[in-house]
Amino acid sequence: MKARLMFASLVLAMSVVFTGCSSDSKETETAAKPADTAQTASDSSDLNAKLKDVLEQYRQFSIEQSDQFIVETEKFVAAVKSGDLEQAKALYAPTRMYYERIEPIAEALGNFDPDIDARDGDVEAADWRGFHRIEKSLWEDKQTAGMEAFADRLLSDVKSLRALMETVEVDTAMLTTGAVELLNEVSSTKVTGEEERYSHTDMYDFVANVEGAKKIYELLKPELASQDAALDQSIGEKFTALEALLAKYKSGDGYVLFTELKEDNTRELSQALDALAEPLSQMGKALGV
Amino acid sequence: MAAKRKQDSDNRAISRRDLLKMAGIGGAGLLLGGAGVGALFKSNQDSSTSASASPTNSSYHGELPFYGEHQAGIITPAQDFVVFASFDLTTSSIDEVRKLFKDWTAAASVITQGGMLGEDNENLNVPPSDTGEAAGLQPSKTTLTFGVGPSFFDERFGLADRKPAELQDLPSFNGDALRKEWVGGDIGVQACANDMQVAFRAIRNLTRIARGKAALRWIQEGFQRTSGADPSGGTARNLMGFKDGTGNPDVTDAAKMNEVVWTQAGDGPQWMAGGSYMVVRRIRIRIEVWDRSTLGEQEATFGRYRASGAPLGSEQEFDPIDLEKKDDKGKPVIPMDAHIRVAKENGVQILRRSYSYSSGLDTRTGQLDAGLLFVAFNRSVAKQFIPMQRMLAASDRLNEYIEHNGSALFACFPGVKEGGWIGDTLL
Question: Which end of chain A is more exposed for a tag (fewer CB within 10 A), N or C?
Answer without folding.
Answer: N
